[in-house]
Amino acid sequence: MIAYECGQGPVRALAFSPDGKLLASSAGDGALQIWEGGGLKWEQMLSQRCHALGFNAAGTILALGCEDGITRFWDAETGKLLETYKSLQYPVTGLAFVDSDKKILLTAGDPERLYEESKGVTLWNYPSREGKAIVTYSLEVARTFSASPNGQRFAWTTRHNKLITARLSKQDQFHFSLKDPARCLRITNQGTLAAGCSWKISIYSCEEHRFKFSLEGHKGLVSDISFSPDEQFLLSGSWDQTAKLWDLSSGKEVNNFQWKQGQISRVAIAPDGMRYVCGFATGTVLIWDAE
Length: 291
Description:
There is one protein chain. The chain is mainly beta. The chain is 0% helix and 56% strand. It contains no helices and 28 strands. The strands form 7 sheets. Strands 1-28-27-26 form a 4-stranded antiparallel sheet, with no helix packed on it. It has a 4-stranded antiparallel sheet with strand order 2-3-4-5, with no helix packed on it. InterPro entries: Apc4-like_WD40_dom, WD40/YVTN_repeat-like_dom_sf, WD40_repeat_CS, WD40_repeat_dom_sf, WD40_rpt. Keywords: Repeat, WD repeat. This is Anaphase-promoting complex subunit 4-like WD40 domain-containing protein.
């Protein structure tokens, strides 16, 4: 097991590079770190909190979605700031490179306020020559967001507890109604969708447009979730200070992890499925082997 301090305040975002060699983390004080092989590769201190992290498919560029509405692009190898543009009027809540890194999906909103025209889910060219979105999927505030690893599917939730799914290649959307707000969201290449709502995790099928089942066992709010690469397992983190591993074929809990670091704010599974990561409200990050 490897433990390190990301910064002051809760770990707000975690992201592996596609090859699994790099791990990016951001904390509540604006600290941004890139780790490689258990050692710190580079670190930056930002004046704005980062809500979203994402690598391009090549693993050479790290994108940051920040509270000031600016999307920042960094060289993943050197830590050099490559590009900064004011892409959105409101805080960036999610992002994902798509279309062979030629485009980027961005979501925006403020969970504390409701803007009538916030352009919550948009598609941009990368780099953005136009200085504006080329497609707008929704004008509603996007509270949570997820894109599939291949970038073909994506989903988001709104302030009004709507869960919306879409495909990059099609303009059709499908809506689910949530009983409770979703704090976290993940979608797979095959269209399995997981939403952490209150103390449970709801599983949906995008292909069949239906709710499938719930994963129940946490005794606190589910703060984050992550699918295994084979889409057979789900890792969840909670304010109850535990992380749980779920078998999606049976809907059963197969492992429970607990430490003394406190509430868990973020979780991630490496692209090879061999490492798990937890980020805590204290700023601590733990990495351990799946075996």
